[in-house]
Specification:
Elements: E1 5-13, H1 18-32, E2 38-45, E3 52-59, H2 62-68, H3 75-82, E4 86-95
Antiparallel strand pairs: 1-3, 1-4, 2-3
């Protein structure tokens, strides 16, 4: 099966937390890349200041992408927000072909 869906998370670091946040995001990506149905998860810098990132997940199954949103490891993003490591989270999903 080919690529059928993509999800993105845009993340802006809170002032002074970019380095620590980047380390935590790298650890999260290690976990996410082992998710069933995930072709790849990537982390890209958004902008020159290295304080904003986009995490992108590529999926071979729309159902598996939807299921993974309930994984405990994704609560890390909300914990980072509560701990004030980040100032903004924005989630998006895109369906590339009918399931």
């Amino acid at each position: 099966m080919g690529l059928v869906a993509i999800n993105t998370v845009e993340i802006d670091a809170a002032n002074g937390s970019a380095t620590a946040l980047r380390l935590k995001l790298d650890a999260l990506l290690d976990t996410l890349n082992r998710t069933s149905g995930c072709t790849a998860y990537t982390l890209a810098c958004r902008g020159a200041a290295d304080q904003a990132w986009i995490i992108t997940g590529y999926w071979d199954s729309l159902e598996r992408m939807t299921e993974h949103f309930h994984l405990p490891c994704l609560t890390v993003l909300f914990e980072l927000a509560a701990q004030r490591y980040l100032s903004r989270l924005s989630f998006r999903t895109f369906v590339l072909s009918p399931p």
